[in-house]
Amino acid sequence: MDYSNFISLLLEGNPRAAARLITFVENNFEAAEEIINSIYEYTGNAYILGITGAPGTGKSTFISTLTKRYVDQGKKIGIICVDPTSPLTGGALLGDRIRMKQNFSLNNVFIRSMANRGQLGGLARATEDAIKILDAYGCDIIIIETVGVGQSEVDIFKSAETVVVLLVPGLGDDIQAIKAGIMEITDIFVVNKMDLPGTDKKVAEIEQMLEFRKSYKYESKDFKDKFAKINQWTPEITKVNSKTGENFDKLLGLIENHKSFLEESGVISNYMKNRIKSETIEILKYKLTKKVEKLIHSDEKIEQYIEKAIKKSLDPYSMADLIIKMLGLEK
Amino acid sequence: MDYSNFISLLLEGNPRAAARLITFVENNFEAAEEIINSIYEYTGNAYILGITGAPGTGKSTFISTLTKRYVDQGKKIGIICVDPTSPLTGGALLGDRIRMKQNFSLNNVFIRSMANRGQLGGLARATEDAIKILDAYGCDIIIIETVGVGQSEVDIFKSAETVVVLLVPGLGDDIQAIKAGIMEITDIFVVNKMDLPGTDKKVAEIEQMLEFRKSYKYESKDFKDKFAKINQWTPEITKVNSKTGENFDKLLGLIENHKSFLEESGVISNYMKNRIKSETIEILKYKLTKKVEKLIHSDEKIEQYIEKAIKKSLDPYSMADLIIKMLGLEK
Q1: CA A330 to CA B22: how far, in whole Å?
Q2: Is B44-265 CATH 3.40.980.20?
Q3: Cβ of A120 under 8 Å from any chain B Cβ?
Q4: Considering the entire predicted model, what is its pTM?
Q5: How many whole angstroms separate alpha carbon B317 and alpha carbon A82?
Q6: Which of A41, A301, A317, A331 is most worth mutating to test chain B (most B CB atoms within 10 A of its CB)?
Q7: Rounded alpha-carbon distances, angstroms, from residue A131 to A81, A255, B203
Q8: Which of the four pLDDT bands, split at 50, 70 and 90, describes residue A88?
Q9: 3-state class of B44 per DSSP?
């Protein structure tokens, strides 16, 4: 298929072309390959914000208010809602997104849901490609929202420059609900619904938790090499009211501070490297699996190994090693 | 670590050794490699039954009754409960299993739950290894139970020789709840709770559905090659009452028939091949990913590619292709 027409329209800022191209990369690995290859040079301008929080923390209203602020500054926003647990919870999230869409003009705000439909090459890969499409489409800020259930978010947030985690007063176990892995990659904690009692208690709880946390992303080995001394970012904590917009000026300032920190400290270049590495690993996993599957179903030597395995004289782990040798990959 | 002591005990039929070894293979890929290599020659005697059904179809009672029948025939049974959606639903399933354990002697029936804890190498790989451990342990029949939510079951059932799917009268949407992929690999449909009204209607619904189904596993290309003419198995349908044991004689006969069919038609040898192939593919995926990750984080040439990618002159898909070339795997 020829995607060049869609790509021209995308670069002109056509939202329908963006939507179609995201569908293509979601459903077809070969399409993704071709599309990303064509648009890659036009990417790299968007700032990527990761936002998560347990159910009930008011993510939709928070994102709507934040988006409105950015739109008022003349910015173009992309919102990608990623639900790794779908189809189980896909319905509810989708309804939220439809309501959100009604608040904005299609020209300023592009909203898209992505669910785990067992995509070839994984949801993380498809999300990465959607980010690139919205980047080339001209978004200044791309918000990646997830539902906060664990390892999948951590993978998806690998490309987020600033990660914001939402909590609410009183919910009590929302801190526990957000898995350890998420905590460690959070740059800004936001206590939403600050009009409710217990807001300051929740802020204190987060402060306490931060004292006990074992590591923060800039302390991991990926960030340690060149910039160890200057990589000091202490996760910020703030409280907001998403319904009234209270304290959003402060929040926008904190996001801006974190962005400046990344640039001035040089951390941003490590970020970009890590992002490219993890994307390439995802793509390689898919490609190598395809190769191995093809080989296993057609090679004569492997037929002989399988016969041996059936006779119990060769186990699958040893067979895997023999195939790695066959491929010349022992080292 | 040296597993030889546990393995000797396993081969003597020590249930604690079986439990420990399953924990080892679950948590550690290298342990799995070593353990499976040592026990592989003692496997191949167990018959593997896959059982699934939507929540509410009475899987626990059904499996208890079926297990009791086999125990009365002097057979040793292994039950592996696989929950791909865990930790979300792990608790409920676990409670069921504890109740089930109380009904049986540890010497005749070994029960184990396995959940998706993001294991290295995947849940399907860990389940495969647990099957082998219970096979070497001396189980005559190994029951793999899953919760029936989709693609994960299909992967897990790749090693099951006979797949049984449970339904109940009246539930209405249980047929829809069981995903298309599961339907196609089902050998025997069981309408449980046959004392409830609507049992015959449910049987008729399944019959109707079978008429419309597009394909059945023996019609897939994996089974077509040698045995196309004789691979005729029409999925059976029966109704049972798991509480009273009504119709279990018939069910046991159907399972026995299917087993004979597999052996007499020669399909069984295709099964074994496919099982070994898919196991080896899972293992290779893990090993190749490890290799690629190591390479990407250390190779100098790749550092240069990453610099190019940062400058937007090389996209991750093209970079993946260059790495495949570097590995000598273009073809």
Answers
A1: 28
A2: no
A3: no
A4: 0.75
A5: 22
A6: A317
A7: 11, 19, 48
A8: very low
A9: coil
